[in-house]
Design brief:
The chain is mainly alpha-helical. It has 2 domains: 33 residues; 71 residues, no CATH class. Helix content is 50%, strand content 0%. It is built from 3 helices and no strands. The chain starts with 10 loop residues before the first helix and ends in a 22-residue tail after the last helix.
């Protein structure tokens, strides 16, 4: 019995077209994502607001951060811990300079983001 490998004459063309399509899609995604992730502070035409915790507090805004710690707990823990440390520094600044208004902090899954400044 002769066993011969199945040959697909169209396979090389398919692979080259697929790789070009993936490359074009990746470049388009990078261009769109870089533009939409964060505002450019040096671009006068970029009208998106640059927010920090002081602006959020003074403006009476609400900040909701969905960290999705189930798929990637290490990244969620790092981002949450940095945010809570920044909020703790803001609370110390308010204590020293006099607070503006009442603030509430609700932390879901606190075991993933707890750190020393929050305690």
């Amino acid at each position: 019995m002769l066993i011969r490998k199945y040959e697909m004459p169209w396979r090389r063309a398919y692979e080259s077209y697929a790789s070009v399509a993936w490359l074009v899609a990746l470049i388009a995604f990078v261009i769109i994502a870089v533009r939409s992730l964060s505002p450019n502070p040096f671009d006068a035409g970029d009208t998106r607001a640059i927010m920090n915790f002081e602006k959020i507090e003074r403006g009476g805004h609400v900040l909701y951060m969905c960290l999705d710690s189930l798929p990637d707990p290490s990244v969620a823990s790092a981002i949450g811990a940095l945010s809570l440390a920044d909020l703790a520094a803001r609370a110390g600044m308010r204590y020293n300079l006099g607070g503006y208004r009442r603030m509430s902090l609700f932390v879901d899954e606190v075991s993933n983001v707890i750190n020393q400044p929050l305690i």
